[in-house]
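Translate sequence into structure tokens.
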Amino acid sequence: MKSNIDATKSGHWRRQRDLAVGAPHHMAWHLGGNPEGPAWLLLHGGPGSGANPGLMAPLDLTRQWAIAPDQRGSGASRPRGATRRNHTAALVADLERLRMHLGLARWSVLAGSWGTVLALAYAQAHPQRVERLVLRGAFAVSRREVGGLLQARRFGKTPKVPEWLWPCSRSRSLPALLVRLRQVLQSVTPGVAALGVARRWGQLEARAAARGMWRALLHAPRPAPALRVAWATQRRRERRAWADFQRRGSRADRSDRALCAKFRIQAHYLLHRGFVRPGQLDRAVMSLAQTGVRVDWVHGRYDMVCPPQNSRRWSAIGQRIDAPRVSLTLTTAGHLGHEPATLVALRARVRRA
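Result follows.
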């Protein structure tokens, strides 16, 4: 029974009132699709990014219901960018509070990138509340993944920038880099250094996504027009991110403040390894297989952010315990969920009865 929501059928992205989840946090959440259909919890990546209407793309909105919260400090949740009392266990508790607020007995979970970490943590804590999981581009919160993005060594030569704008040097370790990034981004009113760091981080993210998509384009035997369009769109985003980084203005506009808040949350979580204990994700995968929760893994072969080996390893662990309820699909794509091959695979998994 879904008694606490407006039950009008609509595929439109609808913002709901904030849900108090413990001072000082209020969680924003969004709805889409058919509230009379099976409920799907959509978990965004980041951390710090916030939900967006594109998360609903794999669903059939005429018969499925989408529920997309903004995690603590992210998106429209308030206070934005707040790291106080913000950790993975708190996010899990927030999701369970939202489920009870909506009056749902169970829901399925669709998650990508960082969202897969949160999905596994939630499903491990509340397996009786999860119908099934569809996990895209699984993230292991490893030093290889984080260092590969922030230190940009996997991408070959990168434009040289001053140390005060991006504190990444050969002598600085990854933990020291994350500490410095968190310090620079800590202020609610970003200064010149914080603006430079946030813009540079955004540029590195866009570059990593574009590289993965480019590799997929090179390896596709007959690249579909949709893949070429997606590649061109991502290239424009990469150029825009680089142009934003090159700006030397000391005044932050609205997008700059959002970027600083996003990466303040991200630095906080990455510095603490996602607040995930060693081996916790492996144990979560085994626990779900033992309790019979279906898990479908989808991963781009050319993902330059989260290596496909993550999904390969976890799907293998699950298949050893409960092969019929675990599947793995590797697509000719990079990291992003809207890349054509990955979107087709997600739709096939999500819309399956």
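Note: The two ends are 20 Å apart (CA to CA).
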